[in-house]
Amino acid sequence: MTRKVLIMTQNFYPVIGSAGNRMKNIFQLLNDKNIETHVLTTEPAYPNKNLYKDDQFWDDDNIAKDEKKIVRVPIKNNHFSNHILSRLFFYVEIMWRFLLKLWKLRKEKYDYIYVSTPPIFIVFAAFVGAFFMKAKVVLEVRDLWPDSLIGVKTFDYPIIIKCFRVLEKRMYNKSDYIVINSLGFEEHILSKLKNKAKKIIYLPNGPRKQEIVCEKERQSQFRVVYTGNLGLAQDVDHLKKMASLFHIHDIRFDVLGYGMKTKEFKEHVENNDLSNVYMHNPTTRKKSLQLIKQSNLSIAFLNDNQVFETVLPGKVIDYMTCQTPIIAGIKGTAAKIIETNKAGFVFDQDNISEMIKKVLELRENPNQLQHLAENCTRTIRENFLWEENIEKLTEIIDR
């Protein structure tokens, strides 16, 4: 008998970033495995709704064929503010609209609801839907919440945080299965579970086979790249310092960034006349990977907060996919993967001078750089291919 799955997620194709691409891959691969999979999501709006009026973002013909399986609900409050109360109202609106849609779908015979967090409010809408549909809930955790909320230092209301922790614990315990995209989350989640034997599945972000770069293009100029969010979790001040030093050392620095701190970074580039820094507008995944492929090295930063030690940023996987070794100011899970697989070098995030020194050293040592690039490809093939890792999810669904 064919299994039927409903994916509930805030971010889905064509939304840029790791979350949207992740949900797209799960949707496509489950359908390829003859598991009938539908999606309940919002209309694309991140980082802004107008971005998706450009046809270039709707570049996957296979998704277009399956559009009948995708329900997109409109959200009135689609302004991405850094004010925490505005964000909470935004998440509550999504939860409410998802609940209304789930009520209309209540007669559908879904076997599983696959729901992605953050935000956690969507999860509780999924529990309501699962009750009416008599479905099991697979909870995907892409971020430890509310710890990440505390980590970006925008919310400091102990009573509300305590309430959020109660909701977090209930969320883990009420779900039937839990999926994580970073092994760093496992210990924290286990500490909240009453049933320590509950199945936790590690399903990391990764590329499809056709996205893996096997051979780099030779460039006339040495290039370093940063792609992804420039927000509260990323250390934009350190990135600004690196941009200035790259300019001094005549190194081209490509930045494809979006998020709350993008304007601040652009102003730094303009005010200091950093002509070697090239800013790129948000674009499709294909074009983003092409930019990374054209680069010799990549940069990754996260704020120095303990909660971010558990995170495995999607950009780290994208860099390795494109054979582009990483210079990182991060700790914990991501640092361990980079160091263990010899895919780059990890530093204390304040040690900008040593990072620059290593970049200059690698610029003069193409053989070492090539060895690191080969390690990137080996790591991806052995651990991060979607076509192989999806079997961990299909196994529990087919059960």
Automatic annotation (TrEMBL):
Under the heading Gene3D superfamilies, the entry gives:
Glycogen Phosphorylase B
UniProt-recorded name of the protein: Uncharacterized protein
Q: Where is the signal peptide?
A: none
Q: Which GO terms describe its molecular function?
A: hexosyltransferase activity
Identify the taxonomic lineage of the organism of origin. Answer: Bacteria, Bacillati, Bacillota, Bacilli, Bacillales
Q: Where is the Glycosyltransferase subfamily 4-like N-terminal domain?
A: 20-206
Cited InterPro entries: Glyco_trans_1 (IPR001296), Glyco_trans_4-like_N (IPR028098), Glycosyltransferase_grp1 (IPR050194)
Domain of life (superkingdom): Bacteria
What are the transmembrane regions?
112-133
* Annotated Pfam families: Glyco_trans_4_4 (PF13579), Glycos_transf_1 (PF00534)
Q: What keywords were assigned to this record?
A: Membrane, Transmembrane, Transmembrane helix
Q: Does the keyword ATP-binding apply?
A: no
Stretches assigned to the Glycosyl transferase family domain:
217-375
